[in-house]
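Lecture 7 notes: from sequence to structure.
We start with the chain below.
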Amino acid sequence: MGFYAIGVGGTGAKCIEALVYLCAAGVIEVNELYLLFVDADKSNGTLERVNRSIKLYQECKNLNLGTTDLFKTNIVVANPSIWSPLGERENTNLEDFFGYDTLRQNNQNNHFADLFDVLYSADEKAASLKRGFRGHPSIGAAVMARTLDFANTEPWVTFSNRISSDINEGQEAKIILSGSVFGGTGASGLPTIPKLIKEIIDTKANEKEVKAKIAAILMTPYFSFTPVKDLDIEDDKSKIKADSNSFLIRTQCALNYYYESHYLKDCNPVYILGEHSLSSVNISKLGGPEQRNEPHFIEIFAALAMNNFFSEPTKNYQVIARKEEKKIYWEDFPHKNRQANSVKEKLAVLTRFSFAYLSTYYPLLENLEEKKTFYQAPWYVDYFQRNKVNLSQVLKTDLLAIKNFCKGFLLWLANIQTSAKELDLELINWNKFALEQQKEEGGKKYKEVTLRNEFELSAFLNLLLPVSQQSERGLSNLWQNLCMSSVRDEKASGVGKFIRALFEQCKLL
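Predicted structure tokens for the same chain:
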């Protein structure tokens, strides 16, 4: 069975980011997941952050953890991971991309150039595509329609072959796309890509039943930003840029167009998510490495929609909503079991694990390596010395990968809690391990979330809200339990056995 998730544009990438962290916590119920990104702005900072998280996830997954919820899903990434409809022509504009001058010179009788003038304004034609489509799906749709080639272009060739293999072997293939309908790349890619995927599926149909399904997540507006003042793109004569004031009207136009043109008829189900209280991003950037939009709680809903599609997709029309207009509780997130297997409980375990590892265990292992006082940690003898693990080496590789993933996860959690400032989120006790630092850029002051140098250790059992356990001996109990623990799993070995033991003990608290 093949499971595929495609993030279209920056918003789609952020939905994949949430999916990756839910995979790490064991929430996502698939054994293997194939990821692919579509974005004209391959240097986008949000994409860079998401791809780094995936790389760290893969490194941690390879640590021989055995059978456990931690990094449960095997994540495979397309090669290249990001497909740009611009190909290698990233510094071009729309006029050059379609050879406007040639059209004007050679096709006067056919009026192709005149039609081009009717469809696109002078600013749209002159806009550099280096930083994407700037919230103009009309630009993105034209470029994608010209360049999207499943038969001859990677990573689509491999993607198509994998789906074909699933179908030929009688397995089910499930493909889900996520992206915004109020921007440029998402709004233009979401209606285009499913049609081409459906063509691949249809070519394999013949007379046999094909178990292949396509779904889409349409993200309606949930954030806003201050318009960018300076475009600062070399050789750009255009002044067009994305404007969050037009998000609602763009969303209405896109949804009406999809409906009237039957563009999403191949997608079943279709998930539509949004938030009427728009959260303002810290810093507005036209694109490129500096554009790193903060994670948002609505992206967890998107990841859970993917899990719903992968496991038991909603068959009938359903609406979900939160309990209170201005508040978000864990109970507002859809999940099958509200007890031990809930989204909250699984994320709570990964949060405790990350907190304990960063605050206590990784620093102690560094100290043990420096001072050689291994007797201070009885669990070290069991999980390192007896398994002949070279501490000096793994501190720079395997253990460092876990450290960096945990940092990224806790920062993601803290941003989830703080990004929707217009709402009261009862989700994460974030200020026990993170803080907001005052920053200033371009005359605008904003707050950026960073991890604390020292965590508030007494909060270990209360990292997710509401506060329920008052004991301040959480980390002490974890230490004692780890010293008496064992991992009876032949598939767990080396550093992976220690990481597995620490995670399992966090689960038992």
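Points to note: Residues 231-235 have pLDDT under 50 and may be disordered. The chain has 17 helices and twelve strands.
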